[in-house]
Amino acid sequence: MQREQVLLEKAQKRLEEIHKIPALKKGNSITKALRRNGISRRDFMKWAGAMTAMLSLPASFVPLTAKAAEVADRLPVIWLHMAECTGCSESLLRSDGPGIDSLIFDYISLEYHETLMAASGFQAEHNLEAAIEKYKGRYVLMVEGGIPTGLEGQYLTIGAHGKTGWQGTVEASEHAAAIFAIGTCSSFGGIQAANPNPTATKPLSQVINKPVINVPGCPPSEKNIVGNVIHFILFGTLPSLDAFNRPKWAYGLRIHDLCERRGHFDAGEFVQAFGDDGAKDSYCLYKMGCKGPYTFNNCSKLRFNSHTSWPIQAGHGCIGCSEPNFWDTMGPFEEPMANKLYNTPFFGGADRTADNIGITLLGAAAIGIAAHAVLTNIKKDNQ
């Protein structure tokens, strides 16, 4: 209780300080934005409660989470696009209706976002430079996409002054209050960095010298994006991170831990081929290559497509998209990981430091999963 009280007082003090900063969008408020879109105060508070729980905060923080959303317009955001497909932005913006997460992001003062802004050419470049100068030390930098460093960083050269993507990223990060790598490409390099990586693409953390919070996923859930912003507003500090700088509140558990098909795994009931009776009965997809036992994310809790479904629910195994180098280490995507055990990313990976599981135990766990699948199947055949 004492620790909770200290956190409460810290968050209250920070919100009071942020509230003193003039609103960047005059005449607007989150309350007005919600009302315009037919979202009641009751629904907003329900969202605040869900967000509080997702951030692993006590229920006493619900009013403060709501307040953090209300003062989010004091927080300038600069969003850069590097080598990527814009899927992370789409995850945040492409909802069937304006949900509270996307409305809050609309409400935030988004100073630069190449996909959304109307400006181009000199005007766009001026907007970026002016925002960096005006909000120096205050703005949040979000980078989507890996950073190509080949050919002396000449890739992604844009704008009237011909700045490269690498140069623009370094300059924007210099005076940022917080930096988020949005999506697996920015967090770990993504498909651009997959072998043979002809553009020498690197994750954001390897091209700048400041702390980076990784929010991986291909794409990540919009709640993981907005949740990090809310946490920063509340505390102004980095959340608890794992070995790969991922927030533990979002990436602290394996897909396997909370999977809706886990009971079938424990019972030895596996899909043997896509479309078979096991698939129709939602059996475990491990034998079809599901990487859920090796992947850290909260997809099963948040889901996609307006929170209606996610890959495993739809009938395909997890491909491990929130893990480092997953294009190289998790494939082939429809073969069990045990077939290539010693090429996994776990030897020296997140488990080793974040969850205090040693290399030997991890290897034993992976072997055990494979053995479980084989033995239970033999048992069933005998029966």
TrEMBL record:
Which residues participate in [4Fe-4S] cluster 2 binding? 256, 259, 284, 290
Q: Which InterPro entries match?
A: Cytochrome-c3_hydrogenase_C, NADH_UbQ_OxRdtase-like_20kDa, NiFe-Hase_small_C_sf, NiFe_Hase_small_N_sf, NiFe_hydrogenase_ssu, TAT_signal, TAT_signal_bac_arc
Alphabetized Pfam families for the sequence: NiFe_hyd_SSU_C, Oxidored_q6, TAT_signal
> Which coarse location class applies to the principal site listed for this UniProt protein?
other
Q: Which domain of life, per UniProt?
A: Bacteria
Q: Where is the Cytochrome-c3 hydrogenase C-terminal domain?
A: 251-333
Report keywords, A-Z: 3Fe-4S, 4Fe-4S, Iron, Iron-sulfur, Metal-binding, Molybdenum, Oxidoreductase, Signal
Q: Where in the cell is it found?
A: Cell envelope
GO MF terms listed in the record are:
3 iron, 4 sulfur cluster binding; 4 iron, 4 sulfur cluster binding; electron transfer activity; ferredoxin hydrogenase activity; metal ion binding
- Which cofactor is recorded for it? [4Fe-4S] cluster; [3Fe-4S] cluster
Tell me, which GO biological process terms does this entry list? anaerobic respiration
Q: Which residues form the NADH:ubiquinone oxidoreductase-like 20kDa subunit domain?
A: 85-231
Q: Which GO terms describe its cellular component?
A: [Ni-Fe] hydrogenase complex; cell envelope; ferredoxin hydrogenase complex; membrane
Q: Can you tell me which residues bind [4Fe-4S] cluster 1?
A: 85, 88, 185, 218
Q: Where does [3Fe-4S] cluster bind?
A: 299, 318, 321
- Give the multimer and partner information: Heterodimer of a large and a small subunit.
Say which family it is in: Belongs to the [NiFe]/[NiFeSe] hydrogenase small subunit family.
UniProt-recorded name of the protein = Ni/Fe hydrogenase
